[in-house]
Amino acid sequence: DLGTGEGWEYKANTHARNRAAQGRRAAATGFGILSGLLTGSYMIPIGGSDRITGICSNMATSGDTLFWASREFLSCIYMPTGDHLWYDELPVDKMSSSSVFIDASTVYFLNKGRMPGYFYGMGMDYGEAFVAAYDRWTGDKKFTSYSDLPITSVLLDEERDEFFQLSDTRLSKRSLVTGEELGYMVFEFGDSIPAGTVFARNDMFFAD
Predict the structure, then answer these.
(1) Is the pLDDT of residue 43 over 70?
(2) What is the 8-class DSSP label of residue 168?
(3) In degrees rounded to 5, what are phi and psi of residue 155?
(4) In this structure, are residues 50 and 21 in contact, taking their beta carbons and an 8 Å threshold?
């Protein structure tokens, strides 16, 4: 409350250890010990952080409800009190940067399989990409759809019960009911997709 300072807090885990960076440091340390150059540990400036941060989604709100994903849970929170209305446990070993977007009856969760800003600002593949859909009111999961490639964006076409899943080199059409793949096209990195092929409507939802 801006007037009284009273409110609630929500504790969440949004980071993980960067196993790749730790592995490089461990390998460098081991080499130094074996060659007689080091005693104890030694940190070599090889790039990369010990921790990956920002493993979470945007905050999507509607009325008094807030939808947000940490590394561990996708949560629907009643904003006046901070109480959980429902939550779903997420696969922590697959999590990455993510997005949540909602419509009248469904919560869509996009785990991108990529962390922007890492690897010298270019971003890096991380976790495993997937799209999941939940009943907005109960939290019952409708489907989970995994991707072999990081997902850059998702477009919904609710009139046809379909969604389009875009990666760097692949565009997949899937069912909004089951998540099943209905068709796909493959293109070279950097190619442009003809606008009339997919983006024929302007009332679709986007995940950044």
Answers:
(1) no
(2) S
(3) -120, 130
(4) yes
Please tell me the distance from the alpha carbon of residue 166 to that of residue 185, in angstroms, as a whole number.
10
- Residue scoring higher pLDDT (116 or 118): 116
The b/e string for 129-162 (b: 16+ C-beta within 10 A; e otherwise) is bbbbbbebeebeebbebebebbbbebbbbeeeeb
At 4, list the tokens: 């009284």
- Report how far residue 155's alpha carbon sits from residue 148's, in angstroms, rounded to the nearest whole number: 18
The distance from CA 208 to its chain's CA centroid, rounded to whole angstroms, is: 10
The answer to whether residues 103 and 119 touch, using CB atoms and an 8 Å cutoff, is no
Tens of pLDDT, residue by residue over 44-84, are: 333 455 677 788 899 999 999 999 999 999 999 999 999 99
Contacts of 18 (CB under 8 A, 6+ apart): 48, 49, 50, 51, 52
Residue 51 backbone phi and psi in degrees, to 5: -130, 145
Which position has the higher pLDDT, 88 or 36?
88
- CA separation, residue 53 to residues 13, 16, 28, 126, 147 (Å): 9, 7, 24, 12, 22
Give the start-end residues of each E strand in the chain: 15-17, 51-53, 60-62, 65-69, 73-78, 83-89, 98-102, 106-111, 114-115, 124-125, 130-135, 141-146, 153-157, 162-166, 170-175, 181-186
- Please classify residue 113 by burial: count the beta carbons closer than 10 Å to its beta carbon, then call 0-12 exposed, 13-18 middle and 19+ buried: buried
Output the pTM of the full model: 0.73
The least confident of 8-17, 30-39, 146-155, 168-177 is: 30-39
